[in-house]
Amino acid sequence: MPKRWCLLNGPYATVHSQGLCGQLPPSVWSRVEQGYQRFRKEYQRPIQCRVLSVMRQWVNGHWYDFEGDDKLLNNLCAFLEETDRQANVTNQHKKWCKSIQTCIERKRRSDSTTAHTPTVELDDDIPPPLNSPNSFAPVKPPIVWHTAKKGEIDSYDLLTLHPLEIGRQVTLLEFELYRAIKPIELVGSAWTKQDKDRRSPQLLKLIDHSTMLTYWVARSIVETPSLEERVGMFSRVLEVMSVFEELNNFTGLVAFYSALNSSSRIDREKQICYEKFKKLCNPHWKEMIDRLQSINPPCVPFFGHYLSKIFFYEEGNSTFVQNNNEELSHEQMSGDGNSGVNSNASNRKILVSFVKCRRIAAIISDIQMYQNQPYALQVEPSIRVGFF
């Protein structure tokens, strides 16, 4: 037995536990106190400040997590109040708590103001005053009509409405649906789960809209009574797709292209009329990705490309991984020979795959980049209600 263990074995074996503390010299307690203070200064307090910093970023940048979860918000507020009341926390900790509480109150006031602010309908024909913030905004082009006039909802279809205005109104609607999608709806492949209606409501709206738009275009083509009218309908679809291409609306472009590819229509003139869209809508999306990287917003990217990449990372890699070699790594760094003491406990430790999280976050960041710049186009309510 080592000598150091022999020296300590006597007091432990001959003194009761109640009297053992009184036998320890003050120098031992001093070293314990110094070690504890060093632990608090170098490890505990920096980690606590980092946790509070993450909480503030959570509240400031991802408030949507708290909007529909009162329990989560109440737990966070209770934690901040309890931390602020503790006597052993530093002034820096209290400043962090106050900052987070201030951010929460600001977000709450913003939500309340948005909910109670009335919507004012302005006449688009009246120009804004010269000193108004919107006086330097881009001028929205007027609504373009064809054979169907404004208000004649029963006569609205692909042939009676102007293809330019069809492309504009579809683009505006799809941009609103695209812009409403929140990052939390894309985490964990939520749109594929059983509770997808609760976890990804806005994403499902965009998917359902694209599906119904494809069905409507295909039905409009095959329900035409004559071949001549069907060719005209097909030509009109290609004209609308050209408008989508000019407006960088890849969601509408893919929806119309899918309608032309569906088995429910004839393909007599297919290869001649839309060969330029075939390469753009290739299933590998290479041409579309290159086009997306070379243009400036506003645009409506095709969301299926992003969903495929996110699903690939989510299902192909685990977010939480088991670290079976952690004890060996610590042993190699410290040179300690007692490696079998906590090997079982070490094998049960779970680590987070931050590589996977960063990759998914990069995809979501690309999605958000195109949600900020809106289109300078007018919304025509009669077309949106009667046509879509």
UniProtKB/TrEMBL annotation:
Biological processes, Gene Ontology terms: Ras protein signal transduction
PROSITE patterns, per database record: RASGEF_CAT (PS50009)
Gene3D superfamilies: Ras guanine-nucleotide exchange factors catalytic domain (1.10.840.10), Son of sevenless (SoS) protein Chain: S domain 1 (1.20.870.10)
Cellular component, GO, one term: plasma membrane
Domain Ras-GEF: 162-388
Keywords, alphabetical: Guanine-nucleotide releasing factor
Name the record gives this protein: Ras-GEF domain-containing protein
